[in-house]
């Protein structure tokens, strides 16, 4: 077992103007199998927590829930302190309970799909986002010291609650998450860090969401007004203060970019809703990230589990009818188990971006070999739909080591050392 140290990661990457290769560990070892990807995903998770998002706390000592009317009251206790928050649930007029659901971070801006419940999560109550004075304001900080993973943590607690509260009439195996603009950033992070979410739908999330920091810097340098890392840290408190050192000097020093944040969702469902009419959102930056991230789903054998649609110009967070059929396809596949065509990769911007390419993605995506499971099972990554998960929170707290579970433990499918992990190669940054 080798320790993961921040200095190793930083000096291994040094200064990289291109988007980091999803299939190369910080040590330089290559991702060859689906089991290796689980370890690489764990490495990416810890890098993001260290350098941008803040630490995801360990599972709390207690999560209890009660349901009355249409309100799910969740009480979390940890370290002798407690908080309560109360998402409301809007039920569909059609369908049969238990319903599939979308957790709306700050509500949703997409049309409510037929037969799908909407869980309305007031993320500002959990962690405020008014301006820079909002740092540390919100219920999350009653229990924990810091983190802009607060909203993702709140989504995890909602998942805990609906799994143990049958009166809420929500099927915990059919839950999506969505949000638009700043809340789209939160939806993407929640989907990346909560493996029980089967479909993630960020909408027009821009900088700090589906954009890449590197490409956005290049766009601004070439004269187009686009939000970059150095600007966004002055606007609000979405990121850890650790991120400032990169945002104010050079994002090229980051050992990751947001194509890797999106890749943490793989091979589960991801449908990115975007548009090309607002330069500030960095639509080409997002497009480059989307094409790059899609290689991860392809390598895992699940290319149609990830799609994106960049529509023509319209008002921010409005939803054009041209994207309705595409959204329906992902909803029907991941929340209703239907066979639909989710091979969707469209932009109205006429952008050109390929992988590999010399400037931004000078790496060749592999076809990963399926590994055998710790209990003799084989990977289900290629299906594009995650296998059944336990009702317990399923992502471990950030640590400086990653080790194999002891015999008899049931680690989650996407954990390094869990189901579909056979030990892989010896990686200086992960599973050795």
Account of the 3D structure:
Residues 1-20 form the signal peptide. Belongs to the carbohydrate esterase 15 (CE15) family. Residues 385-399 have a biased composition (Pro residues). Residues 74-301 form the 4-O-methyl-glucuronoyl methylesterase-like domain. Keywords: Hydrolase, Lignin degradation, Secreted, Serine esterase, Signal. The model is unreliable at 1-14, 372-414 and 418-432 (pLDDT under 50). The chain has twelve helices and eleven strands. It has a domain at 63-238 and 267-347: 3-Layer(aba) Sandwich (Rossmann fold), CATH 3.40.50. The protein has 432 residues and is of the alpha/beta class. It has an eight-stranded mixed β-sheet, with helices on both faces. It has helices spanning 6-13, 34-53, 123-126, 140-143, 150-164, 182-193, 213-221, 229-235, 244-247, 258-263, 283-299, 324-336; strands at residues 62-68, 71-78, 81-85, 88-90, 99-105, 117-121, 170-180, 199-203, 269-275, 306-311, 345-347. Helix 6 links the parallel strand 7 and strand 8 (199-203). The protein starts with 5 loop residues before the first helix and ends in an 85-residue tail after the last strand. The chain is 28% helix and 16% strand. The radius of gyration is 20 Å and the shape is globular.
Shape label: globular
- Major beta sheet summary: 8 strands, mixed
Question: Could you tell me the mean pLDDT?
Answer: 83
Distance between the termini: 5 Å
The Cα radius of gyration reads 20 Å
How many individual helices? 12
Relative strand content: 15-25%
Q: Segments where pLDDT lies below 50 for 5+ residues?
A: 1-14, 372-414, 418-432
CATH class of the domain at 63-238 and 267-347: Alpha Beta
Assign the CATH superfamily of the domain at 63-238 and 267-347. Alpha/Beta hydrolase fold, catalytic domain
Number of strands: 11
Helix content: 25-40%
Family: Belongs to the carbohydrate esterase 15 (CE15) family.
EC number: 3.1.1.117
Domain 4-O-methyl-glucuronoyl methylesterase-like: 74-301
Main location: secreted
């Amino acid at each position: 077992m080798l320790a993961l140290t921040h200095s190793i990661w930083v000096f291994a990457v040094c200064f990289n103007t291109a988007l980091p290769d999803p299939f190369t560990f910080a040590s330089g070892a290559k991702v060859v199998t689906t089991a290796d990807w689980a370890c690489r995903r764990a490495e990416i998770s810890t890098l993001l927590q260290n350098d941008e998002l803040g630490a995801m706390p360990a599972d709390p000592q207690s999560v209890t829930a009660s349901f009355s009317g249409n309100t799910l009251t969740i009480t979390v206790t940890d370290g002798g302190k407690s908080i309560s928050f109360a998402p409301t649930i809007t039920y569909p007029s059609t369908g049969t309970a238990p319903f599939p659901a979308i957790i709306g971070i700050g509500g949703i801006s997409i049309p409510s799909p037929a037969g799908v419940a909407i869980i309305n999560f007031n993320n500002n109550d959990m962690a405020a986002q008014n301006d820079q004075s909002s740092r540390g304001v919100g219920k999350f900080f009653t229990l924990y010291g810091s983190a802009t993973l607060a909203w993702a943590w709140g989504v995890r607690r909602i998942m805990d609650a609906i799994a143990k509260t049958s009166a809420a009439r929500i099927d915990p195996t059919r839950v999506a998450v969505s949000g638009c603009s700043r809340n789209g950033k939160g939806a993407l992070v929640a989907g990346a860090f909560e493996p029980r979410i089967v479909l993630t739908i960020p909408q027009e999330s821009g900088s700090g969401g589906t954009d890449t920091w590197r490409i956005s810097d290049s766009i601004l340098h070439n004269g187009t007004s686009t939000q970059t890392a150095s600007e966004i840290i002055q606007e609000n408190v979405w990121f850890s203060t650790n991120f400032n050192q990169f945002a104010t000097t050079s994002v090229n020093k980051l050992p990751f970019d947001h194509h890797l944040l999106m890749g943490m969702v793989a091979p589960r469902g991801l449908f990115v809703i975007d548009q090309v009419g607002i330069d500030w959102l960095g639509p080409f930056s997002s497009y480059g990230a989307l094409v790059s991230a899609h290689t991860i789903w392809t390598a895992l054998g699940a290319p149609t589990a990830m799609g994106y649609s960049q529509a023509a110009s319209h008002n921010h967070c409005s939803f054009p009818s041209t994207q309705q059929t595409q959204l329906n396809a992902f909803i029907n596949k991941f929340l209703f188990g239907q066979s639909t065509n989710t091979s969707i990769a469209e932009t109205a911007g006429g952008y050109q971006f390929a992988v590999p390419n010399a400037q931004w993605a000078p790496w060749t995506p592999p076809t990963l070999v399926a590994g055998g499971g710790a209990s003799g099972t084989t990977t289900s990554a290629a299906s594009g739909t995650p296998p059944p998960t336990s009702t317990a929170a399923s992502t471990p707290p950030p640590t400086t080591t990653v080790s194999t579970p002891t015999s008899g433990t049931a680690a989650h499918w996407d954990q390094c050392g869990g189901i579909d992990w056979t030990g892989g190669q010896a990686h200086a940054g992960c599973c050795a």
